[in-house]
Amino acid sequence: MSIQFSPVVTAQEQPGDGTFSVKVIDVRQLGGSLSAVTVMDDFRVSGHPFPPHPHAGFSAVTYVFEDSPGALRSRDSLGNDVVTSPGGIVWTQAGSGVIHEEIPADLNRELHGLQVFVNLSSKNKLVAPRMFRLEKSEVQEWRSGTGDRVRVLVGAFEGVASPLVPAEPFTFLDVELRREVAFDLKNQENAIIYVVKGSVLVRADAREQKVTDEQAVALYGGKGRVTFDCSAPAHFLLLCGGEIREPIVMEGPFMMNERSQIEDAAARYRSGRMGHLPPLSKS
């Protein structure tokens, strides 16, 4: 079967409160896809809007854009308390459950990042929670002779592999496009392309689609080579994971296959089995 294209979706800015703003890529509109990605938000935050909160059944991923004025502070009930600079990534594999909090490392400097929720299949819903992290200097890069640059945050590209290896295969690439790059989509994989800046022409099989600033498109349904080219410099992200053909029940911070599993996760949280994370002072 040939690779299919979803409709193109434009990120929608949501009302903010002065300290937090977000442009939401509604992955539900990327029709036909069974992507592991369930939430995708391009956000900016300069304060302390959210207290510590639990997650279970998926991975909460935060990529700090290289242009972010500020760094990311991530802490959790596993005992982690780290600062990740622009260009780095934090992958919180919640699994059976963890409490975490992510805020700007300096509350007076804006943090610009991409927040992604990556579903876990049923066999890994209760995997032990774990935080993975790469600093900018640890992210491997591929470069072409014509100036294209691919930062391999997760997965592999053209023989360049990331040291960040989550429970289930996933690819996360940050691409500075100057001429052309190509990516091989495998069977039972789905990819989302999100253009941060510029205009990218996406080609697969006999189809092509232009995707521009703050727009996304999904590719699914078959395997083959996907090419990306541009007439002027462009910046896009590619996120690719395996199809998860399972029911999804999502309620608040938990993502499971059945409602009883949601209730079990809530019980683990209330009983303290996800650990404890005291709130920080907002001063």
Outline the structure in words.
- The structure is a single chain.
- Helices cover 5% and strands 50% of the residues.
- By secondary structure, it is mainly beta.
- The strands form 6 sheets. Strands 1, 2, 14, 15, 18, 20, 23 and 25 form an 8-stranded antiparallel β-sheet that branches. Strands 3-4-5-12-7-10-13 form a 7-stranded antiparallel β-sheet, with no helix packed on it. The chain has a 4-stranded antiparallel β-sheet with strand order 6-11-8-9, with no helix packed on it.
Sheet of most strands: 8 strands, antiparallel
Give the distance, in angstroms, between the N- and C-terminal Cα atoms. Answer: 57 Å
Query: What is the number of helical segments per DSSP (H or I, 4+ residues)?
Result: 1
Oligomer: single chain
CATH architectural label? Sandwich
Shape: globular
* Radius of gyration, CA atoms, in whole angstroms: 18 Å
The domain count comes to: 1
Structural class: mainly beta
SSE string, helices as H and strands as E? EEEEEEEEEEEEEEEEEEEEEEEEEEEH
CATH level-3 fold name: Jelly Rolls
* Broad CATH class: Mainly Beta
Let me know the average pLDDT.
Answer: 95
- Poorly predicted runs are none
Beta-strand content: over 45%
Tell me how many strands there are.
Answer: 27
Q: Let me know the CATH homologous superfamily.
A: Jelly Rolls
